[in-house]
């Protein structure tokens, strides 16, 4: 990329058990210098401060509703500002519930989006189907037009307007999908490349088919929402919900290299890095450095040099 590329970090943290430390570790691993070293201009917006809610009691089974709703509203505004300045937004989580604000803000600024969701999980439970009540397993249900009838009124969530069509969503890396999620994916006909398809087709064909599928109708800006747990826990163990049988380091980086080549990458989330879930410092460093390499791949880094 030329020097006209500006990357801004709307770095966001949830008051959670360790995942709030992800962004600073990714910074400390030298993301800014490495991006600049490959010809990118970088602007770091720093960490977004979120309002604390004293007794944020569950609503039904949904946990941390008020703080997550409020945080995502601030994040949406921050991402909108970044996109209005014509930059590519990079949101470092924090957990995947932050994709609500990131996708909402991105769409508010640029309109219709394609979403590529790289994850071991589908993150499409509704508040009523979620087995855990954790919103990081639900973000897509709040932003998909087709699921709005399934969303109850939740405090601090009324600002969210659905903004993504199910036909503009592609999953890569799925291998731990709840029955209720699988039902919704089938019902909505969402395009899924689970780990089975990755094994069957190979990551190169998966990316070719992903891009053909997304550009079959109208080419739209791409929102890449990358959950570090898509990659195998042998490579990225420091994460909240590790699942065996994940992407290799090479497959994980190839995905971002391929999307970078489309020239359509407009916003990136990199979430669920949790240093407290690493058993050793090596576990944490392997996870953080892989996250950095995935991001460098998004912005033009090629392994050939
Ligand atoms: C698969 N769905 C889970 C995990 C969501 C992970 C969020 B991500 O951001 O990391 O992708 C887990 C539900 N299972 C928990 C263990 C018992 C069976 C249900 C959920 O809590 O909804
Ligand atoms: Mn996720
Ligand atoms: Mn996940």
Short description:
This protein has about 300 residues and is α/β, with parallel strands linked by helices. It has helices at about 20-30, 30-35, 65-85, 100-110, 140-145, 180-190, 195-200, 205-215, 250-260, 280-300, and strands at about 5-10, 40-50, 90, 115-120, 170, 190-195, 220-225, 265-270. The mean pLDDT is about 95.
Describe this structure in words.
This protein is α/β, with parallel strands linked by helices and 305 residues long. 37% of the residues lie in helices and 15% in strands. The protein is built from 10 helices and 8 strands. The protein has helices at 22-28, 31-37, 65-84, 99-110, 139-143, 179-188, 195-201, 203-215, 249-262, 281-298; strands spanning 6-12, 41-48, 88-92, 114-118, 169-172, 191-193, 222-227, 265-271. The protein has an 8-stranded parallel beta sheet, sandwiched between helices. α7 packs across α8, α8 (203-215) runs parallel beside α9 (249-262) and α9 (249-262) runs parallel beside α10. It is globular, with a radius of gyration of 18 Å. The ligand CN[C@](CCCC[B-](O)(O)O)(CCN1CCCCC1)C(=O)O binds next to loops.
Shape: globular
The description of the largest β-sheet is:
8 strands, parallel
Average pLDDT value? 94
* Number of separate helices: 10
Bound molecules: the ligand CN[C@](CCCC[B-](O)(O)O)(CCN1CCCCC1)C(=O)O, manganese (II) ion
**N- to C-terminal distance:** 14 Å
Radius of gyration from the alpha-carbon trace, in angstroms: 18 Å
Beta-strand proportion: 5-15%
Secondary structure class reads alpha/beta
> Order of strands across the biggest sheet?
2-1-3-8-7-4-5-6
Q: What is the multimeric organization of the chains shown?
A: single chain
Low-confidence stretches: none
How do the SSEs run, as a string of H and E?
EHHEHEHEHEHEHHEHEH
Strand elements, count: 8
Secondary structure: helix percent: 25-40%
